[in-house]
């Protein structure tokens, strides 16, 4: 478990608790922009009709829904049953199932791409979660990570700190769950920056790393390609 990360059981319980307000909070906190970022994430996954996609830590399913809208066959997995209930109600045509991102119940090379939106930050072991995503994607397929990142330079860093340290916890208090929306900024602060995340993805077995910053520098989209397995050394 990386420093400052909550134990898995607590993260799962927190998402079970906030499932009912999650979608509304996303729209309030991002002024609806999160749908645009999800479209870009699915563009980076390079999937279309006939592709098989796994959306890890799918939550209420918005990224899975975006991938399915491109004609892909999508599985969404998450360890919070309450978040999955919301996802299933929104998109009965998508397979949503309970699974731990750190021990995915899928064989090697089962998918053409794997995505994770605003989920990697919650992994108790980021390297292991990324390695699991890389394992279940075939060589040549993509792994895409959509995350919030911290701008380092003013004026955006000033805006970010006002928005995240003051407005988000306030909105969380109004929504009835101050703890969850205090956890959110702290989880972003301890998450690796764009360059470090790319290095972590490389360590997980991905190549051709690239990333895009958007949303005024607060959103990072990373994509890597699963490398062919190296022949075993003689
Ligand atoms: C902030 S929500 C993101 C949901 C969704 N991907 C989205 O883009 O809105 C984080 C999700 O990650 C899930 N999660 C965190 N750690 C997980 C793990 N180890 N295995 C499975 N799901 C996990 C939580 O249950 C929660 O639904």
Give structural notes.
The protein is of the alpha/beta class and 234 residues long. It has a domain at 8-16 and 30-147 and 192-226: Rossmann fold. The chain has helices at 8-30, 34-45, 62-69, 81-90, 126-136, 156-174, 180-190, 194-203; strands at residues 52-56, 73-78, 95-98, 111-117, 137-148, 206-214, 219-226. Helix 3 (62-69) links the parallel strand 1 (52-56) and strand 2 (73-78). Helix 1 crosses helix 4 (81-90). S-adenosylmethionine (SAM) binds at residues 8, 11-12, 15, 57-59, 62-63, 78-80, 83, 100-102, 117-119, 122-123. S-adenosylmethionine is lined by residues 8, 11-12, 15, 57-59, 62-63, 78-80, 83, 100-102, 117-119, 122-123.
Distance between the termini: 35 Å
Write the CATH architecture name of the domain at 8-16 and 30-147 and 192-226: 3-Layer(aba) Sandwich
Can you say what the CATH homologous superfamily of the domain at 8-16 and 30-147 and 192-226 is? Vaccinia Virus protein VP39
Poorly predicted sequence stretches spanning 5 or more consecutive residues: none
Helix residue percentage = 40-55%
How many individual β-strands?
A: 7
Q: Can you give the mean pLDDT? A: 89
The chain-level structural class is alpha/beta
Shape: globular
Instruction: Please write the string of helix (H) and strand (E) elements.
Output: HHEHEHEEHEHHHEE
Strand order across the biggest sheet? 3-2-1-4-5-7-6
Distinct ligands: S-adenosylmethionine
Question: Sheet with the most strands?
Answer: 7 strands, mixed
Under CATH, the topology of the domain at 8-16 and 30-147 and 192-226 is which? Rossmann fold
CATH class of the domain at 8-16 and 30-147 and 192-226: Alpha Beta
Secondary structure tally, helices: 8
β-sheet strand percentage: 15-25%
């Amino acid at each position: 478990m990386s420093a400052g990360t909550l134990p898995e059981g607590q993260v799962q319980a927190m998402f079970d608790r906030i499932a009912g307000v999650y979608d509304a909070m996303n729209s309030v906190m991002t002024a609806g922009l999160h749908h645009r970022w999800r479209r870009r994430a699915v563009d980076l996954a390079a999937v279309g009709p006939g592709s098989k996609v796994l959306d890890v830590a799918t939550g209420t399913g918005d990224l899975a829904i975006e991938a399915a809208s491109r004609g892909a066959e999508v599985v969404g997995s998450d360890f919070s049953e309450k978040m999955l209930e919301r996802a299933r109600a929104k998109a009965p045509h998508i397979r949503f199932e309970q699974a731990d991102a750190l021990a995915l119940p899928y064989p090697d090379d089962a998918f053409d791409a794997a995505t994770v939106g605003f989920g990697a930050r919650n992994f108790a072991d980021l390297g292991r979660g990324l390695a699991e995503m890389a394992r279940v994607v075939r060589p040549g397929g993509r792994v895409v990570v959509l995350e919030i990142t911290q701008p380092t330079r003013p004026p955006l860093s000033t805006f970010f700190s006002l928005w995240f340290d003051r407005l988000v916890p306030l909105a969380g208090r109004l929504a009835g769950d101050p703890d969850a929306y205090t956890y959110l900024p702290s989880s972003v602060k301890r998450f690796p920056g764009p360059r470090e995340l790319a290095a972590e993805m490389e360590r997980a077995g991905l190549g051709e790393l690239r990333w895009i910053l958007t949303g005024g520098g607060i959103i990072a989209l990373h994509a890597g390609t699963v490398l062919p397995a190296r022949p075993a050394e003689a």
